UniProtKB/TrEMBL annotation:
Its EC number is 1.1.1.-. InterPro entries: NAD(P)-bd_dom_sf (IPR036291), Sc_DH/Rdtase_CS (IPR020904), SDR_fam (IPR002347). GO terms for molecular function: oxidoreductase activity. It comes from Nonomuraea insulae. Keywords: Oxidoreductase. It is an enzyme of class 1 (oxidoreductase). This is SDR family NAD(P)-dependent oxidoreductase. Pfam families: adh_short_C2.
Amino acid sequence: MRFSDKLAVVTGADSGIGRATAVRLLREGATVVAVDLKHTQPWPDDVVERVRPLDLDVADQDAAPSLEDYLRAEFQHVDVLANVAGILRIAPFLQVTRADWDRVVAVNLTGVFFLTQAVARIMVEHGTPGRIVNVSSVHAVVSEPNAAPYTATKGGLEAMTRTMASELAPHGITVNCVRPGATRTRMSEPIYTPEIVASLKAKIPLGTIAPPEWVAAAIAYLASEEACYTTGACLDVDGGYAMDGSLPGAAYS
C-alpha cells in the first residue's frame, strides 16, 4: 500500500499501460484521476470507489487548464502524475502528412508538457514532494521505420524529462520516465501481425512481448517513495531489446 492517502493523475487510463498503471496505483491505496478521451471499460469492483474518471483530450488547448481547475476544486493536493497517453501513426517518412505529424506531437509531447506544468504548479504551491513519470519508448533510442513522428516525440520527451527534473528538483519533485519495449496494448495490437510477433521474439533477448502490467510495475516504482533519490532517469522495460547487439541466428567465433 505504497500509495495510501495519495492522489495520482494517470493519462491514457482507459486501456493498455495507462489502465494497468491506474489499477496498480489503486490497488496500492491511491485515489486516481483517470484521464482519457472517453471511458469505455468498467473498473474492477475492488477499486472503483477510488476512481475519478475525467474525459479529456490531452492534446486540446484547454486540457491543461481544465485539469488544473478540476484538481484545485476537488482535491487538496496532487502526489503523482503518470503521463501515459500516446498515439502512433504508421506511414513511410516520405508520406507523412502534416495532420498526422501535428496530432502525434500534440498528444505525445505538447500535451505532456502542459499537463505536467499544470500539475507541477499545484505540487509546488502545496509543497508536495511529487512524483512525475513520463512514458517514452524503446524507439526513442532505436529506430522504428514508418513511425518518424512517434520516434521524434519520444526522443523529445526524454530530453524534456531531464529538463523538468532539473527545474523541479529544488521543490522536491522528481521527474523520470520509463522506456517500454514491445508491449501488448490497444495501440500495438493492430500492427502485431504473426510475422511481426515472431520477429520481435527473435530480437528480444528475454524472448517475449510484455503485458502492460510489467510496465505499470516500473511506473509504480518511480512514482513511489522508494525512488525518492532518482530523478531525470529513464528506466528500460524492454526485455533487453535496446541493449542487445547480437546477430539473430549467428555468432562470432
